[in-house]
Amino acid sequence: MSDIGDAIGTAVEGGLFAKALDERSGDKAPLEKGHFAEGQCLNCGTELIGSHCHGCGQQAHLHRTLGAFLHDLLHGALHFEGRTWRTLPKLFFKPGELTRRYIEGERARFVSPMALFLFCIFLMFAVFQFAGISAPTDIRGDNGEELAEMAATEFDRVEKRLADVESELADPETPAEEREELEQRRKELSDQVAAIREARENVPFLRNDSEPRELETDAEGNTIVPLTNSDGATIKMKSSGLEWIDGGLEKWRKNPGLMLYKLQTNFYKFSWLLIPLSIPFVWLLFAWKRRFKAYDHAIFITYSISFMTLLILTVTLLALFGVAEAVWGSMLCFIPPIHMYKQLRGAYGLSRFSAFWRLCVLMVFIVIVLVLFLQLLLVIGAF
Question: Which residues, at least 6 apart from 183, have a Cβ–Cβ distance to it below 8 Å?
Fold first, then answer.
């Protein structure tokens, strides 16, 4: 027993000695129940005064627990923190106050507009993918040229084989026992050549390139290419007469399903373009009011788009869970103008009449911006 007691005593003594050496070695961040108890900033070494280092801004008294890791995960991936719960109620019910307070300098209290915007776009992408909402890929393009090329290749191949067989038959050294088999092959290949020639004569898109394909034209003489999906719905595309635009239209003609997928993908990637596209139009509403700057309009637009994105997500989820169409349809009709009206009044300090007429003009501007944004996506997707 004495040996065991001596061993335990020696181990305890060694532990105390190691602890003393560790403290003397300058370890300035001992742990207390998973929390650092440092007196100096662990990042830059500045003496700590308050909850954050005044030298580099790092938070004082950091945590080293699993709970702290989960907090960082939620904060980094979903921005779940105190500012979120202060921002979202304001965004839903008092958007004008939220916009004005952020513009006037209350930045630490609320989630920044761009961070909220990016989170909403990410959330929309995730929900749409989970719900299986995506662009249709069953639209068939005009694959006549591809089929014609395949037919021409097959025709050349059969003709070459027929020529080889006839060459062997014409050779006097060909054994008599092989001639019967070659004659049978020549007959089969001749029938194939005749069938392909007949098909190329009767089927328009299998004709030779020298023969122009007959495509539908409108009253103005513009070529119209029909695209048909599996349900029989038809989309008609006109040629523009401009080479670089027609190059993009050609891609839509040949593979519209792929182009629609690229259009959807580019929407998530380039949705931020809605902000710079919208700023000039909102500026026009306040062009004679010098106290409102482009920055103010950018904050207004970004918070507004974030709310509209969350509204679309809410409506989508309601529709997926079988809520009556009248309910979510009414939400889409009435909530957006009411929200923009309240945001205009609160953010810019407008009277009811001033906010109302600006809302009416803004609704027209929104349509213009969406059309411009769609055109940009089409151009980006075509190249």
Answer: 169
- The whole-angstrom separation of Cα 260 and Cα 264 is 6
Residue with tokens 């993918």: 129
3-state secondary structure of 377: helix
Please answer whether residues 253 and 141 qualify as being in contact, where contact means their C-beta atoms are separated by less than 8 angstroms: yes
DSSP category for residue 205: G
CA-to-CA distance for 30 and 24, rounded, in angstroms?
12
Enter the pTM of the model: 0.59
Which runs of E-coded beta strand occur in the chain?
A: 31-32, 35-36, 216-217, 223-228, 234-238
Per-residue pLDDT tens listing for the chain (383 residues): 445 555 555 544 545 444 444 444 444 455 555 556 567 777 787 877 777 787 787 777 676 677 666 666 666 655 556 678 889 999 999 999 999 999 998 888 888 899 899 888 888 888 887 777 665 555 555 555 555 566 667 777 777 887 887 887 777 777 777 777 878 888 887 887 777 776 666 655 455 444 444 445 555 555 555 544 445 444 455 555 555 555 555 555 555 556 666 667 777 788 889 999 999 999 999 998 888 989 999 999 999 999 999 999 999 888 888 888 899 889 999 999 999 999 999 999 999 999 999 999 999 999 999 999 888 877 776 55
Residues comprising the chain, all counted: 383
